[in-house]
Design brief:
ATP binding, 15 strands, alpha/beta, four-stranded antiparallel sheet, AAA_N_dom
Length: about 500
């Protein structure tokens, strides 16, 4: 009897399951038929309206929230959509089946983005986020966005839909989306091709964007290849890294988000290479400014406004460009004695005054061979925050050059070369030139030893000649002082004789 009821119960459950499955299949088939008929009969606008209504009904019972990021906000690009597109390109999973690949001329690498109707899952702070790229076809040509150059070809409206649990809404708005914007900004900066700009004087008074003309910067210098002491390179890299991360701090203390560097030292010590390494490290464009070509402070301000953020402004050999050694330059401008009217106060206002705040995240680099010729007002902190002495070649710098040019880290001649470099004033550029000449490693290093020996002998002879010259000048000065003293005694003696004669005459007169 028990087995009979057990068998009957099992048959009942099986029949129920079959009924449920049959009903589900019928509903699915009916839904597919309705969808197919609606797709053929109903206009696209009505289909979207019906679909939206159904979604609205189901959303009332759902715990999920969907945010829609349209590609365009009116007639302008939607910044959040652009940032999300770049960000999601780096979150492509192995399960993704379709990708869109592009490479603009201004970028160094390929750009990956989601293809239409592809979905992607992202995790942030332990929260799951679902993304989908929705592309809706537009039948009327009048609906295309004139700012979207592609819309006239494919007539579609693109948007990203972000779905997540409703309880994370505040976190998405306050943390997740700002994080995406910052990440996309960094990714875009790192992938772009660097450019170097110079002033276009013919178009200076046109549009601000035309004031500078640029070309690609392919300088290979990096901090790994610079012939600088290790502690100097590490200091500069850490200073730059800290600077780009302190936007909120600069705002908090009320300072313009900029940093000034003064590179000083003899020619050939690597000042230009250091600037290129800074640009490659930060992925900042370079703006090369020649102050002698400017006629007034207003032109300087105009060029400042036309510069892009996240850039490096370079003024090379500032001691030779304009008379900044003292403030007499401004008085000469006031009296009309100088045709070039960019003044020290104009430059200081540009570096540390009100106009310095017309832009964010900028590096200002001045170079000079003679730091002592610069006006002290230009050197104080807040204007030139970091002073870097580009010295003659050191043993550490030589080892870096040997690795750069010869790909060696040690050799039997290194000890002799390093000792000679310590006792000889030789620039990294001179050492690099010698390393380029040889046909093999041994010959090249021997030629460098001979070059350093001759360089030292030449410097010793020059020092001896200079010492003898100074000695002769000193003796000549002492001789003139002695001769001047004898003449003074004779002059005083003649005056005493005249006084004596005068006294006698006066006495006789009386």
């Amino acid at each position: 009897m028990a087995s009979f009821f057990s068998s009957s119960t099992a048959d009942s459950h099986l029949a129920t399951a079959k009924t449920v499955l049959s009903t589900a299949a019928s509903v699915a088939a009916t839904a597919m038929v309705i969808r197919s008929v609606a797709s053929d009969i109903l206009p696209e606008e009505l289909r979207h309206y019906v679909t939206g209504g159904i979604r609205s009904v189901f959303s009332r019972f759902s715990s999920e929230l969907t945010m829609v990021l349209e590609e365009f906000d009116g007639l302008v690009n939607n910044q959040i959509y652009e940032a999300a597109e770049i960000y999601l390109g780096s979150r492509i999973s192995p399960s993704t089946q379709r990708l869109k690949v592009s490479k603009p001329d201004t970028d160094q690498s390929f750009i990956l983005t989601m293809e239409r109707n592809e979905s992607l899952t992202d995790f942030f702070n332990g929260v799951k986020f679902n993304w989908i790229l929705v592309c809706r076809q537009v039948e009327s040509r009048n609906l295309h966005n004139p700012r979207d150059l592609n819309s006239t070809l494919k007539s579609e409206v693109r948007s990203l839909e972000l779905t997540f649990h409703k309880k994370h809404k505040d976190m998405v708005l306050n943390t997740y989306l700002p994080f995406i914007i910052e990440e996309a900004k960094s990714m875009k900066q790192e992938s772009k091709a660097l450019r170097i700009f110079t002033v276009d004087y013919q178009n200076m008074y046109g549009n601000f964007s035309d004031a500078w003309v640029g070309t690609n910067l392919d300088h290979p210098a990096t901090f790994d290849t610079l012939a600088l002491d290790l502690d100097v390179k590490e200091f500069v890299m850490e200073d730059l890294k800290r600077f780009v991360k302190r936007k909120d701090y600069y705002r908090k203390v009320g300072k313009a988000w900029k940093r000034g560097y003064l590179l000083y030292g003899p020619p050939g010590t690597g000042k230009s290479s250091l600037i290129a390494a800074m640009a490659n490290y930060l992925h900042f464009d370079i703006y090369d400014l020649e102050l002698t070509e400017l006629n007034c402070n207003s032109e300087l301000r105009r060029l400042l406004i036309a510069m892009a953020n996240r850039s490096i402004l370079v003024v090379e050999d500032i001691d030779c460009t304009i008379d900044f050694q003292d403030r007499m330059a401004e008085s000469r401008v006031a009296t009309g004695n100088n045709s070039k009217q960019v003044t020290l106060s104009g430059l200081l206002n540009f570096v540390d005054g009100l106009w310095s705040s017309c832009g964010d995240e900028r590096i200002i680099v001045f170079t000079t061979n003679h730091k002592d010729k610069l006006d002290p007002a230009l050197l104080r902190p807040g204007r030139m925050d970091v002073h870097i002495h580009m010295s003659y070649c050191t043993p550490c710098g030589f080892k870096q050059l040997a690795y750069n040019y010869l790909r060696i880290k040690q050799h039997s001649l290194f000890g002799e070369i390093e000792e000679a470099i310590q006792n000889t004033q030789v620039t990294p550029a001179e050492v690099a030139e010698q390393l380029l000449k040889g046909s093999d490693i041994d010959t090249t290093l021997k030629q460098l030893v001979d070059f350093l020996r001759k360089k030292k002998e030449s410097q010793e002879l020059e020092a001896k000649r200079k010492e003898e010259q100074e000695s002769r000048e000193k003796e000549e000065q002492q001789r003139k002082q002695i001769d001047g003293g004898d003449k003074g005694e004779k002059f005083n003696k003649d005056d005493d004789d005249d006084d004596e004669k005068k006294s006698i005459v006066e006495l006789n007169t009386n």
